[in-house]
Amino acid sequence: xxxxxxxxxxxxxxxxxxxxxxxxxxxxxxxxxxxxxxxxxxxxxxxxxxxxxxxxxxxxxxxxxxxxxxxxxxxxxxxxxxxxxxxxxxxxxxxxxxxxxxxxxxxxxxxxxxxxxxxxxxxxxxxxxxxxxxxxxxxxxxxxxxxxxxxxxxxxxxxxxxxxxxxxxxxxxxxxxxxxxxxxxxxxxxxxxxxxxxxxxxxxxxxxxxxxxxxxxxxxxxxxxxxxxxxxxxxxxxxxxxxxxxxxxxxxxxxxxxxxxxxxxxxxxxxxxxxxxxxxxxxxxxxxxxxxxxxxxxxxxx
Length: 302
Known about the structure:
Shape: elongated
Distance between the termini: 56 Å
Order of helices and strands: HEEHHHEHEEHHHEHHEEHEEH
Structural class: alpha+beta
Oligomer: single chain
């Protein structure tokens, strides 16, 4: 069987693209990954194919759909390289986000008072503006600065800095990386087989655990039985529940979000696979701003 079968399928059916300035960018073309580098990285990180095959094959219900385990190994390797080892951008809550938050507040609710703090010794010398006319003048000025602050350049670049580009796994964001890995494998199984079963969830969790070098053994669940130690391994039901928990946390916005970078701009015209938003407020702030702006433009036919 073709060990590259699933990689080819993924690249034929599951690529993420965006058109920016008339050019189409592809963000997850894993076929561009060098196979030799992928294998070498797995070896360096202690990710072993024999462990993968054992843990995955014994957990898959082959009566559902036949599975090419060698091809699944290759796909998992390539996705791991793409998600965990590719350089990514990460953004902090900067000027653009703060302005969006302030602008949306003024536009939707107005201002009752404004406080200013000195740059030294913040708790002393604070100035509070309460006069309605003066507050209105300042709020009007802030709104009038909209086109100067939210320029194409500031929206495309945010706070990007060469020092803010690093491998995904070097960002303290493992929960999100695990979710991204799970989501890509889920997309593959769902699209490739047309169904998504509990058996597939368990296989995905087995892959995740193998690639993250986590033990299937719950050490705190070691039991004594008939004078012998009995090691109670994670059952398929437990792995199924762990899968559901991660997806639930993602849906409830409990994980730090990742974006494909076309949603916040492309650095030097290079398609970086992910942009990590390190502040949980970022997604909410941008969403509220663009929602308000859309309604405003529709209302005023701009």
